[in-house]
Automatic annotation (TrEMBL), chains A, B:
Belongs to the class-II aminoacyl-tRNA synthetase family. Type 1 subfamily. Coiled coil: none annotated. One of its GO terms (biological process) is aspartyl-tRNA aminoacylation. GO terms for cellular component: mitochondrion. It comes from Paramormyrops kingsleyae. Residues 185-616 form the Aminoacyl-transfer RNA synthetases class-II family profile domain. It holds the Pfam family tRNA_anti-codon. InterPro entries: Aa-tRNA-synt_II (IPR004364), aa-tRNA-synth_II (IPR006195), aa-tRNA-synth_II/BPL/LPL (IPR045864), Asp-tRNA-ligase_1 (IPR004524), Asp-tRNA-ligase_1_N (IPR047089), Asp/Asn-tRNA-synth_IIb (IPR002312), GAD-like_sf (IPR004115), GAD_dom (IPR029351). Signal peptide: none annotated. This is Aspartyl-tRNA synthetase 2, mitochondrial. Gene3D superfamilies: Bira Bifunctional Protein, Domain 2 (3.30.930.10), GAD-like domain (3.30.1360.30), Nucleic acid-binding proteins (2.40.50.140). Keywords: Aminoacyl-tRNA synthetase, ATP-binding, Ligase, Nucleotide-binding, Protein biosynthesis. GO terms for molecular function: aspartate-tRNA ligase activity; ATP binding; nucleic acid binding.
Amino acid sequence: MRFKKRGASGKLCLRRTHIPMIRSTSWTSVQFRSTHGTNSGSSSFSIRSHTCGELRSTHVGEVVTLCGWVQYQRHGMFVILRDYSGLTQVLIPEDESRIKLKKTFCELPLESVVKVKGKVKRRPAGQENKEMPTGEIEVCAETAEVLNKSKKLPFEIKDFTKKAESLRMQYRYLDLRSSQMQYNLRLRSQIVMKIREYLTNIHGFVDVETPTLFKRTPGGAKEFLVPSREPGRFYCLPQSPQQFKQLLMVAGIDRYFQVARCYRDEGSKPDRQPEFTQVDIEMSFVNQAGIQALIEGLIQHFWPNELRSISTPFPIMTYEEAMSVFGVDKPDVRFGMQLVNISEVFSSIEVEFLRDIVHRPGGCVQAIRVPGGTRHLKNKDLESLKHLAKIHFNQTVNVVVLKDDGTWRSSIAKLLPDSAKQHLLQLTAAKPGDVLILASGLLQDVRSLLGKLRLQCVQLLEDKGMIVRDPSDFHFLWVVDFPLFLPKKEYPAELESAHHPFTAAHPEDLPLLLKEPHKVRSQHFDLVVNGCEVGGGSIRIHDASVQKFVLEKILKEDSSLLSHLLEALDSGAPPHGGIALGLDRLLSIIVGASSIRDVIAFPKSFRGHDLMSGAPDFISEDELRPYHVCVKWPVQEGKEKQELDLTKNSALDS
Amino acid sequence: MRFKKRGASGKLCLRRTHIPMIRSTSWTSVQFRSTHGTNSGSSSFSIRSHTCGELRSTHVGEVVTLCGWVQYQRHGMFVILRDYSGLTQVLIPEDESRIKLKKTFCELPLESVVKVKGKVKRRPAGQENKEMPTGEIEVCAETAEVLNKSKKLPFEIKDFTKKAESLRMQYRYLDLRSSQMQYNLRLRSQIVMKIREYLTNIHGFVDVETPTLFKRTPGGAKEFLVPSREPGRFYCLPQSPQQFKQLLMVAGIDRYFQVARCYRDEGSKPDRQPEFTQVDIEMSFVNQAGIQALIEGLIQHFWPNELRSISTPFPIMTYEEAMSVFGVDKPDVRFGMQLVNISEVFSSIEVEFLRDIVHRPGGCVQAIRVPGGTRHLKNKDLESLKHLAKIHFNQTVNVVVLKDDGTWRSSIAKLLPDSAKQHLLQLTAAKPGDVLILASGLLQDVRSLLGKLRLQCVQLLEDKGMIVRDPSDFHFLWVVDFPLFLPKKEYPAELESAHHPFTAAHPEDLPLLLKEPHKVRSQHFDLVVNGCEVGGGSIRIHDASVQKFVLEKILKEDSSLLSHLLEALDSGAPPHGGIALGLDRLLSIIVGASSIRDVIAFPKSFRGHDLMSGAPDFISEDELRPYHVCVKWPVQEGKEKQELDLTKNSALDS
């Protein structure tokens, strides 16, 4: 048996060739390849013959070469080799003359990389491992080579090892060795490949790459900037290829898609990434139904076999229905606890503050019912719900606990006559053992609050071990008929686009565009699964004059920033529409990850840091000079530093 | 017949659905789709039934719906509709009652977008157009609709229209309608798809997306910067995913690829783009031969059928051979005119300045022979070659014109004895009618100069109509055994990486690494086709101590900037290597484009501008504030502006 420590690059057998001094057409090249080189498969062109996960009893008798990481050693006889595909047991033969070599090999630090050549043997009867796909065989080593010795690592590569996420991120190259992360990244690659096959091979889409160094879009406050070498001029990293996909339709590309890198500078929002990926799609000569059917087929096409199947078409819900029934525009429809309007109970009774609310324009009282809530929700839980309402919504909620004996425990119990109680029970279908949560106020506030409390309740129940939402169930649905414009948060008298300024109005509402734009529904639609928005699409405005009207008259934007797009719409733009799917979010739901960071190879921390390399990092003034920018240190970081900086600048400028 | 101008969004038939107030599992959705919706093909989910290029005589009798652009009108009877797939002739029926509608339709501005429904009819005998794939049929319009009227455009959408490139770029959405650009972008999409299929489906590669907001690499002077919201900290846009691909190998991904967006800030270099795309590949447990065989298979796999086929394996040439024979490391081997060393002719003769050169260390005299050059190269041409040598290389070349009668026309003719002349003719195999170009000096200077003049000669010959290089011939070859380090241009006593600091040394040269690093060959290799480098790969250093030695002792870099990579190499890094193919360059060669801009949907101008949108653009101070940067206006742009700027800054800072 031969054991040797290989150097940095190993011994290579280069292909040799004869280069005569004549025209190349007559060249011949004599080759010598040292690879095992089958023509396909996961070991093609490799120095290994097989991966560590593929040997079975059918391979018994074959001489194989494996490369892998030392997962563990057993009994001073076995080394368990690992690669992404699995584990193989390697037997180090008992042989007096090789004791030292064997010792070296068996004492190698875990995670060292080795190459082993040997014969596949059936394991002795009774020693098979049925839980290991390669458990019927072992490889009896003939030669072996240490390719790279590992130092002691900061954590073990075991799937069940719980590690702090910051540690996982700092040593991401170790974290990715876990079978869960290998599965996530490999599934992501497969799904993206199926998406591409569906779009290009089946439906004639063209994969077009669009620039990421682009121009600031009007109101694009979340776009990263990239200084150019021209003083004062900046590129920006766009939030999506929206303008380009529309321009491609004007260009007659007809069907475009791209697995597109997008950028959004949102500071420190949890579970967002400064760069993320969307499956970006645009079609000419299509309507909403066409895009929706395309996407339903797409998701069917890539849906992993190992998951519970989904059926198409997906249900459709209007925005108004979603808001009224679930209090949110991305409803989780896997469970009930829907919002019930109970205003009529209070319209004529003595509870003054509720009655006043009901009679105010836009006022209402609504409730959600937690079935069997009395058994699971303790006082502490109910207080936490009230607290949430107070802190995040500045609202007061009333809780009614319906005891098993039919009596009420609630601060409003004594204020309500029996008839009102009966009425309320009837409207909410509440039974003894249930909990009712009541909110009152302006319709939109009540909906948002109860929508949030509904999700909070189910979280509380599940934290206590109830299974309310089946995690293996995937409920896709479309939400349609969104409003086209919303009042600006800071200046409610002004309107802003609910999604983006290129969204077309609902054809039935076109007449409202001139006079009552706030009432116009849009041709925007969202794809929602299990309470998460995973895609948004729309039919776009393809008429230049309509686009100009929306930009200038309704949104009060400077349309000259988009003059290229307006001109394009005037140059024979076809009717078109499209959609973007949030690939990271969709994948995290499919693999059941709690964060999109678990489906991204090298994610940033929630503060936007790469904990492995330390990006973003400080840059010297010398390196900033070609871009004609300098750092403006905040005053609070130290007056001295700032002054120093200004001094330097003056010196450079003069 | 119905003609109507459709509004911004057209009339849509939305799918309707019943959303009961119960759990979604029992939902059903009743749908009404207005699309023609076949389940596959290029008109699936569309309001058209067919594209404008697909109707044949087999469709005669079918009622079809076409959508397209008005290409032209003929005889007030025909409208020729175009989409990406081709042209179809639409017949407007002669009908007294429809004269006005017909007039409208036939007077529509070219490039307006229309929808036509009608029956496919065979063209009357004798009126077929054999040059048009749809030339056997026409569509007899029954209804038609103007979807969008076009204004007068800045240029016609005709392939043969020659336009200034700046105009093409400004109206890129019109330029892309040309059949050449449609072909280029669609071929690009298809080739990329085949690359993906080959790598993932046949060879088990994993498509992994790596970040583009990363950390400055040591010496990464060409990296764009992206200010973060943390004062003084910047991301950078990496030139390639080099570090990430190696980290993925350490992570056990085994086989990685990505069609990766890369960034390089090279200012205004011709035919470079600030963002470009590379097919990025990395494998564990592989050697050079394995990577080369993988790529040969890849190119065979995607090679377009319509091009002359290529054969594999590709020839291999060492860097030393390429430099000595072709004077360049990316030789165009489609023609001869190779460099010939003629130093021995001058070592003992009277031409003092040449003899001295030959006897100087590293000095030489070399020649290239232009067969039949006397017929085609005029005095003006030969002067231009001398001029080029003077301007770009500061060297003098001697030209020998061998007249048909065997006499020499050359300034050195009378200095050479006949024996030397004979010797020279023998070494260069020159015959009457040929031209010889002689250069003398240091070996590396002579090679570079003659390598350049060789290409310049062939360009001159081709400009005069000779076909020296067949544009339909594709000569791929590998150039191997590059030097690992090169002297720095500005400080020749110091070394820098010839490619990048992660390249492994040639195993035979490992002993030289300590004492004579400038002599070490690398395991880097280039893929060259027709004189263009289209890919570069290498085996990487996988030993942390070797990597640290190279960074610190040879390159004198601060290795702490790469501490994450060094640590990774110490954590069980497998031997690995990879390659990156320049997709834009490769495609431009395949489609025969003179610039990579012709295979990119929205390229930047050579100054890095997007001529369509006007990026990069000025950004207000307000928008810069969150990033803690300000513009440092150059002094020469006007002292006043700068002062104004500084005043503003002080006001903001205080």
